[in-house]
Amino acid sequence: MSCEERRGFVQFMWGRSRLPSTVVGFGKDVFKISDQVVAGNPLKSEFPDAWLPVAHTCFFSLELPRYSSKEIMRERIVYAIQNCRTIDADQTQRRNEEI
C-alpha cells in the first residue's frame, strides 16, 4: 500500500488520519479483524466478493467477508478507504478547536 492508502486505512479504521502517539491513547482498543457476520443474510456467504469490509471505529475492528482472493480483498479495502468517509474525527476536532 502507498503511504496515502495506509493513511486512508487508518482513517477508515480509526476515524482519524493518525494513530495515537502512545499506548495510553488507544485505551483498551486493540486492532481486530473478524469474519463479517452472515447470519440472516445468505447472500453474504454465497457472494462474499460483492460486499465491502465494515469498520467499527469505536472498537478499532474490521469485519471482512471471506473474499475469494487476496486481490479482491485488496480492491474492496481500497475502495472502502477511498469512498466510505462517514466518520471523520479529525474534522470534528478541527471544528471544536475553532469554537
Concise synopsis of the structure shown:
The protein is mostly helical and 99 residues long. It has helices at 3-14, 23-26, 42-46, 70-83, 89-98, and strands at 32-35, 54-56, 61-64. It contains 5 helices and 3 strands, in the order H-H-E-H-E-E-H-H.
Please specify the SSE layout and strand pairing:
Layout: H1 3-14, H2 23-26, E1 32-35, H3 42-46, E2 54-56, E3 61-64, H4 70-83, H5 89-98
Parallel strand pairs: 1-3
Antiparallel strand pairs: 2-3
Helix pairs in contact: 1-4
Overall description:
This protein is mainly alpha-helical and 99 residues long. The chain contains five helices and three strands, in the order ααβαββαα. A three-stranded mixed sheet has the order 1-3-2, with helices on one face. Helix 1 (3-14) packs across helix 4. The longest helix is centred in the last third of the chain and has 14 residues, at 70-83. The radius of gyration is 15 Å and the shape is globular. The model has no long low-confidence stretch (mean pLDDT 77).
Question: Keywords, please?
Answer:
single chain; 99 residues; mainly alpha; 3-stranded mixed β-sheet; 5 helices; 45% helix; globular
**What gyration radius follows from the Cα positions, in whole Å?**
15 Å
CA(first)-CA(last) distance: 36 Å
Largest sheet: 3 strands, mixed
The number of helices is 5
- What overall geometry do the principal axes of the alpha carbons give? globular
Give the rounded overall mean pLDDT: 77
* Quantity of strands, as a count: 3
Helix content: 40-55%
Side by side, the strands of the main sheet go 1-3-2
Q: State the low-pLDDT regions, or none.
A: none
Structural class determined from secondary elements: mainly alpha
In terms of DSSP E residues, the strand content is 5-15%
Order of helices and strands: HHEHEEHH
